[in-house]
Amino acid sequence: MTPSPTPYDRLGGEAGVRRLVERFYALMDELPEAYTVRQIHPESLAGSAASLFKYLSGWFGGPPLYTAEKGHPRLRMRHLPYRVGPVERDEWMLCMRQALAETVDDAPLRAALEKAFADMAEHMVNTAGEACAGAAPATLL
């Protein structure tokens, strides 16, 4: 009996995950509607993209690159130094939804990933306030 393919496999492995991450961060730079969430990231998104790629690789069922390098993700703890409110959550999801739409042809997979990302984004919210721009930029994840 052959095991079901993982999301990592269904995305096309390393190349598919990289394509998703690269498009996501390109959108964060391109979309004026993502201004607030972009401000809590460093000027260069390279480190953030590398971390997200490593995290998603393992989260999607591929090589556990992030945990091998940094241990348990503890995503909420790692994001606590940065004020993440509803505006940042929604802007992050705007970029992720569009990146998924542009890079994932498999509609059921895309819908499942969008739901999982929405749940994750909601979990990262640590303030109920308005936009939290002005927080110190950092490498998330």
UniProtKB/TrEMBL annotation:
Natural source organism: Ideonella oryzae
Protein family per UniProt: Belongs to the truncated hemoglobin family. Group II subfamily.
Superkingdom field: Bacteria
Keyword Transmembrane helix carried by entry: no
Keywords assigned: Heme, Iron, Metal-binding, Transport
Signal peptide: none
InterPro entries per record: GlbO/GLB3-like, Globin-like_sf, Globin/Proto, Hemoglobin_trunc
Name this polypeptide is given: Group II truncated hemoglobin
Database matches in SUPFAM superfamilies: Globin-like (SSF46458)
